[in-house]
Amino acid sequence: MSEPNTAELGDKIVRVLKTIYDPEIPVDIYELGLIYDVFVNEEQEVKILMTLTSPNCPVAETLPVEVEEKVKSIDEVSDAIVEITFDPPWTQELMSEEAKLELGML
User: Fold this and answer.
1) By CB count within 10 A, which of 12, 39, 51, 95 is most buried?
2) What single string gives the DSSP state of each residue in 32-92?
């Protein structure tokens, strides 16, 4: 059996993350800088470290579940968990140039 290509799987995960949007901002959560890290181990288990725009974010309950479910829907992924952190807190500095452009901040 060949070794799974974690870089390739990482790219697939990022593509899925880019389909998830913060309902208040017309930019996907990846470009917004809400995804801090994506870890994939040899068992194809994925751990995503992410934040929210604020601790009182209206989607605090649903967004992590959506991320988890969409990542688990990738065939190669055996399991996925999302860990929410507010350290460091999200700031607009974390947004990609694309996101800033989209929101008229550039």
Assistant:
1) 51
2) TT-EEEEEE-TT-EEEEEE--SSTT-TTTTTHHHHHHHHHHTSTT-SEEEEEE--SSPP-G
For CA atoms 47, 48, 54, 58, the dihedral sign is negative
Q: Looking at the domain assignment, is residue 106 inside a domain? A: no
- What pLDDT, on the 0 to 100 scale, is given for residue 55? 84
The arithmetic mean of pLDDT across residues 2-19, rounded, is 86
pTM here? Answer: 0.90
- In terms of Cβ atoms closer than 10 Å to its own Cβ (0-12, 13-18, 19+), residue 49 is middle
Within a domain: 45: yes
How many domains is the chain built from? 1
Residue at 86 is within a domain: yes
Does 96 fall in a domain? no
pLDDT (tens digit, 9 = 90+) per residue, 65-93? 999 999 999 999 999 999 999 999 999 99
